[in-house]
TrEMBL record:
It comes from Crotalus adamanteus (Eastern diamondback rattlesnake). CDD domains: Delta6-FADS-like. This is Fatty acid desaturase 1-like. Residues 5-215 form the Fatty acid desaturase domain. InterPro entries: FA_desaturase_dom, Fatty_acid_desaturase.
Length: 262
């Protein structure tokens, strides 16, 4: 990964393992660490944040500023985190391989584009990669349940935090078979092109134990990202503007609805 992507392999292994162990669990899954600094995620966490009268961003507009923030910046931010991880742990061999990626990139394209052109091309690639990665990865997690860790059983934890995108030739290709995100979380070491083979087994297990198995179309999956951010922002807004700082969420939301009706 260091030589092929310019990122720390140790950093990604730790980061992604934490995500797989506790998906969508606040303070345990690094993917939801953007709450509450930049976004208010999940209905329970948004309600809690509003009742605590905390505001770091105008969360009721987060479904709008999402488009020009997170999708553009995820991969560049990963690059910074990865370098910090290497320096902090003095992983000099990984640093050498990481720099080898950038040296190889500049050697390959500098004769054609020149130094400034190569730099601009690299930034463009990282931004485009960030847009594709963010939308395709978050449609399986961001619209799902996000909360504090409730110490549920492992299977239920994975299913409540993960959904699939319906299989088709295009969906399989554009997502690299990670549209079968549920199977990916249950069998993380399985080759991705084999996920569809275990889908019937997973569905039967869900039916046996009364656990919902969610799968949706690609367009609905993308739209649900924005919709979930809008809903979470509205919940935060209503709770934040309650007159009293109270723990009863139902009273708070009822007051917010009454205010809208008047």
């Amino acid at each position: 990964m260091c030589h092929l992507k310019g990122l720390s392999a140790h950093w990604w292994s730790l980061y992604h393992s934490q995500h797989h162990a506790k998906p969508n669990c606040f303070e345990k899954d690094p993917d939801v660490s953007i709450h509450p600094g930049f976004f208010s995620l999940g209905e329970p966490l948004s309600l809690e944040l509003g009742l605590q009268k905390k505001k770091y961003m105008p969360y009721n507009y987060q479904h709008k500023y999402f488009f020009f923030t997170l999708p553009l910046l995820v991969v560049p931010i990963y690059q910074v985190y990865s370098l910090y991880f290497i320096l902090q742990r003095k992983l000099w061999r990984e640093m050498a391989w990481m720099f080898a990626y950038f040296i190889r990139f500049f050697i390959a394209f500098n004769p054609i584009l020149g130094f400034k052109g190569v730099l601009g091309y690299l930034i463009l690639l990282k931004v485009l990669e960030s847009i594709l990665f963010t939308w395709l990865s978050q449609m399986s997690h961001l619209p799902m349940h996000i909360d504090h860790d409730k110490n549920m059983d492992w299977f239920s934890t994975q299913l409540q935090a993960t959904c699939n995108v319906n299989r088709s030739f295009f969906n399989d290709w554009v997502t690299g078979h990670l549209n079968c995100q549920i199977e990916h979380h249950l069998f993380p070491t399985m080759p991705r092109h084999n996920f569809w083979k275990v889908t019937p087994l997973v569905k039967s297990m869900c039916a046996k134990h009364g656990i919902e198995y969610q799968s949706k179309s690609l367009l609905i999956g993308l739209a649900d990202i924005v919709h979930s951010l809008k809903v979470a922002g509205e919940i935060w807004f209503k709770a934040y503007h309650c007159e009293q700082k109270i723990p009863n969420s139902k009273i708070c939301l009822q007051q917010g609805k009454a205010g809208e009706e008047t």
